[in-house]
Amino acid sequence: MSIDHGRRRFALKLLEAVLVLVLCVAAILAAVALANEGTKPAKKEMTLFKPGADVTFEFFFVVPPGFHLGEEPLAAVSFDKKKIEKLPLTIKLLEYFWTREQLAAEAAESGHDQTTVAAKVPVKLDTKCATGELAIPASVDVFYCNEEEGWCTSSHYDTMLKINVSDDKKALKKGALKVTVVVTPEV
Hints:
Layout: H1 2-37, E1 48-63, E2 67-69, E3 75-78, H2 81-85, E4 89-90, E5 95-98, E6 105-107, E7 113-115, E8 119-125, E9 132-146, E10 152-165, E11 172-182
């Protein structure tokens, strides 16, 4: 009988140790989860626009150290008329050009040359524009020069400008979307 009693006692002590271990692990995991909750990046809210809204794309341009943005033109944004005509929106001009002076290009502390004034492209959504993501095909050209070697060139980007259209009460009737174009020179 003393052997069975000893086994039971051992089994109970073992069970008690396992339970304590499980509780410790659970407490550690809960503490880690709470600590991580404060370090999660804030979820970026999507800007929504109502059908019929006035949306302005605000372009900013940046080139890396060792380069500076061009003079005239510094940048251009253009749209294909055939593609734009198929979309539920109006863009008054199909080509926009900006100079260095218009966009207040200047060297940043990091050594990057960048614009500080937005290059604005206004878009008017049709009142019957369907909700969802509206993609607008655009071409962006940025002109820049190599400071050390003195040559100048441009980079061309075909892109999709996106507007999120919604009937949500938080959707805007008028607003802006920031577009930052970071040029990667091919050397």
